[in-house]
Amino acid sequence: MNCSRFQKLIALFAEGDLAGRKSRQVEKHLVTCIACRQFAQELSRSQGVLKDLGSESIDNRVFQSIQDRVLDQISSREKSVIPTWPLLRWNWRWTQVLVFGLLMLGGLALWKNSFPRKSFPDLAERNEKSVSVPLWEEESNRTRSLDSAQGKVTAGGKSARRSISPKGPGRNRQPRVIRSGPDMEEVTPPSTPGNLAFNGLHVFNSSAEIVEPAIQIAQRESAQGNLEPTKDADKPDPLVIKLVTDDPEVVIVWLVDPDKGERQ
Amino acid sequence: MAGGSEELVLTMTGSRSEAEQGADQRESAQLLKKAKAGDASAFKQIIIQHQRQVLMTALRLLGSLELAQDASQEVFLRLYKYLHKHSDTRKFPPWLYRVTVNVCRDINRRRQKNSMLSLDELQHNGSLAEVADSTDLELTLTRSEQRDIVAKALKTLSEKEREALVLRDIQGLPTKTVARILGSSEATIRSQVSTARVKIKRFAEHFLGRKS
Asked: What ipTM, to 2 d.p.?
């Protein structure tokens, strides 16, 4: 260890802050090194002056002035604060309650307006107005189970749709999807592998709503002349129900076949 | 026989001082309790008891009596405000030191650049340069002049070094207590104190014309 490193240790040794092995090392070094001995002597001299700073005398008027200033400030604060404090506290407390209550009421009103309760006629009306978009291509990529189904998905996923296609001999034909809205158009989905005929698709959003009964849609569309009656019109169609959740990866397809029961 | 009586006197003195210390501590605890309950005279007594400790610490940390007075005032006002937060189990003086150090830090931050004097600045200071140029200064310098030089030397230290040195060497607190007050480890405090002592020694030596 060189002398410059010893100086730091000497600075601790001089005030008894060094103990054990290091202290003995410094002692040994001081016996042999004249420069470090001189350093230690000078250090103890400066330390003596430094410690004297703590015992420096201060005029009593300085202390008196501090006391007076502190006590004056405390008494003036108490005078100004105490009489008004209960009133302020009362006001503040009731203001908090009032503001909180108003905020709650406002929030409730906003929530009520944003989510009005729907009745059946409202739903039917909304189904009529909604725009239908065929999304089987996109949906078929998401899940293999869709390969067996053909259908359409309505925009927003909130409205219910029923499409009717020919059955029996028509199983090999391209199914037709008929929209039920006023801006009706015929949409033909691409053919899909498998023998399963496209019968219909109901799409829900995750907050499932009431689905318009398929038979009503079929009847209405027949009445509007948009649907050619099929040979097996009297026979109940198998029904494919697709449930689209908020998670795009999760699509539940539910096939209801009146002849064979149901499978999922 | 004489040796035995001397030993007895020393023992008695020692035990009496311990008893006095215990009484002082009990008295301080009582005062604190009363002051917490809103007794103004008890709070005044606390100020009287601790004003020197606070003022001297602030004076050495800030380097100016005027600022130290402001700091002391602020310390006692904070004490009045937060006295209810002081736990009875905690020792009061270290807590007061901590408040003092924090107030001084705030004041130092406010004035920032003006507070720190470099060695160069001090070398350009007329009176100190004259003092440094004269020969055999240690003999001619009065103790108060030497104190002035060391007080100036304190200003050349970093804030951390100054805090550690003031609490350890000027206030005479143990390293462990200093570490607790400054929120540091004992090893860090020892290192800061050691560096500060060497710097002070070199500074004093420089102005006393005794270059090694």
From this structure: 0.74
